[in-house]
Specification:
Distance between the termini: 24 Å
CATH architecture of the largest domain: 3-Layer(aba) Sandwich
Helix content: 40-55%
Order of helices and strands: HEHEHEHHEEHEHEHEHEHHEHHH
Number of helices: 14
CATH superfamily of the largest domain: Glycogen Phosphorylase B
CATH topology of the largest domain: Rossmann fold
Radius of gyration: 22 Å
Largest sheet: 6 strands, parallel
CATH class of the largest domain: Alpha Beta
Strand order of the largest sheet: 7-6-5-8-9-10
Number of strands: 10
Number of domains: 2
C-alpha cells in the first residue's frame, strides 16, 4: 500500500491512451493520481478488503495511516465498489468511528462523499463444466467423508478453531479424511505443522494445489467445507466448494449469511464453537439425509458464476469509459 503507486507510476508509459483506470484498495490511488497528473483517466476502485476493519494479527498494533489511505483512495476515485453488501456495511459502520479518533478537525464530510459513489459488485467465480451440482453418492469405497479446508493459511482464517473442532469430532468416535488446500504466503502456521502430525494418514492433500483442474478435482471429491474465519468479505473458496457439491458449515457472521440463502441458515451456519462441533458431528453421522439440501444449495451458487455477473461488470466499465468523454470527470465533494 505504501509503495504500489510509485511502482506503477514508472510501469505505465502514458495514460493518455486509456479510457479508465481500475485498481484495488491495496494501492494509494491519491498518490498515484498526484504522480500521474492530468493524464490520469477516470478511476474505479474495487475494495476486496479494507484496513479499517481488517483484524490485527496477534501482537500487532494498528497503523492508522493505512486506514487513511483507504479513505483518500475512495475520495479521489470516480467509482468505489465493494465485493459484498456485508463489506459495504462494515466499512461505512467503521468509518465514523475511525474519524472520531482524530483529536480535532474531524472530516465527517468524507462519509457521504464516498457513500454517494459506492456500490456492491460480487466477484465473478469460475466453475468448471464438471461442476454441474449432480447428486452425490456415498464416499468412494466406503471411505470416511472428506472435509475440505481451502482457505489461506493465515491467522484471519482462524485455523486453530478448525483443528480444535476436528479433535472434538475424533473424541466423539467419528472419523473423516482431510484435504488441507489453500495458499500460504509466508511461514507455515504452527497449527498446520501440528495438524500434519496429529491427523497423519487422514490427510490426503497438504498445501496449495497449483493445478486448477486438480484443485476442483479435490472439491468434487469433498463432502464438507468448513470455515472458522474471523475475516471474510465474500468467500470465493467457499462458493467454489459448495458449487462442487460440498455441504457447508460456516459461521453465522461475516459475509456468510449473505451468500447462503436464508432457508439454509439453520442447517449450515453455526453461532459458536460448541454449535460448530455439534453440527459437524451431525453432518458426518447423517450425511445422506443432508445431500439433497446440499445439492439444492449448490445449484443456487450458480448466481455467482461469471456468466451471470459479467453484464454488471460490463455496465460498470461502460460508465467508466463514458466518463472519459466528459470534459471534467474529477470527483466532486
Amino acid at each position: 500500500m505504501r509503495g504500489a503507486a510509485l511502482y506503477f507510476a514508472t510501469k505505465i508509459p502514458s495514460l493518455k491512451t486509456y479510457q479508465g483506470l481500475i485498481t484495488t484498495d491495496l494501492m494509494s490511488l491519491s498518490d498515484f493520481k498526484a504522480l500521474a497528473g492530468r493524464s490520469c483517466p477516470p478511476t474505479l476502485v474495487y475494495f476486496h478488503e479494507n484496513q479499517l476493519t481488517y483484524p490485527l494479527a496477534p501482537g500487532e498494533s494498528m497503523d492508522f495511516q493505512f486506514g487513511f489511505t483507504d479513505i483518500t483512495t475512495a475520495l479521489v476515485a470516480n467509482r468505489v465498489l465493494f465485493n459484498s453488501q456485508t463489506h459495504f456495511d462494515a466499512f461505512f459502520t467503521r468509518l465514523p468511528e475511525f474519524l472520531n479518533m482524530m483529536p480535532e478537525y474531524r472530516p465527517k464530510w468524507v462519509i457521504n462523499a464516498i457513500r454517494k459513489k459506492a456500490g456492491v459488485l460480487y466477484p465473478g467465480c469460475y466453475f468448471p463444466p464438471e461442476s454441474t451440482a449432480l447428486p452425490r453418492t456415498q464416499p468412494e469405497h466406503d471411505l470416511p467423508l472428506l472435509i475440505i479446508w481451502n482457505h489461506r493459511w493465515e491467522y484471519d482464517k482462524n485455523p486453530k478453531d478448525f483443528f480444535n473442532a476436528l479433535d472434538s469430532v475424533l473424541e466423539g468416535g467419528l472419523d473423516f479424511r482431510l484435504a488441507l488446500l489453500g495458499e500460504n504466503f509466508q511461514m507455515v502456521p504452527k497449527e498446520f505443522i501440528a495438524a500434519r502430525d496429529r491427523y497423519g494418514h487422514r490427510i490426503v492433500c497438504y498445501g496449495h494445489e497449483e493445478s486448477v483442474e486438480r484443485y476442483f478435482g479435490w472439491l468434487d471429491k469433498g463432502s464438507i467445507i468448513v470455515s472458522t474465519a474471523n475475516q471474510e468479505n465474500f468467500g470465493m473458496s467457499v462458493v467454489e466448494a459448495i458449487r462442487c457439491g460440498c455441504i457447508p458449515l460456516l459461521p453465522d457472521r461475516l459475509s456468510y449469511p449473505e451468500i447462503i440463502p436464508k432457508p439454509f441458515h439453520a442447517d449450515f451456519l453455526y453461532k459458536n464453537h460448541a454449535e460448530l462441533v455439534e453440527k459437524l458431528c451431525f453432518i458426518i453421522a447423517n450425511y445422506p439425509q443432508l445431500q439433497e439440501k446440499g445439492q439444492n444449495l449448490a445449484k443456487q451458487m450458480a448466481c455467482f458464476g461469471w456468466e451471470n455477473l459479467i453484464g454488471q461488470y460490463d455496465g460498470e466499465l461502460e460508465k467508466l469509459a463514458n466518463l472519459n468523454k466528459s470534459s471534467n470527470f474529477a470527483p466532486k465533494f
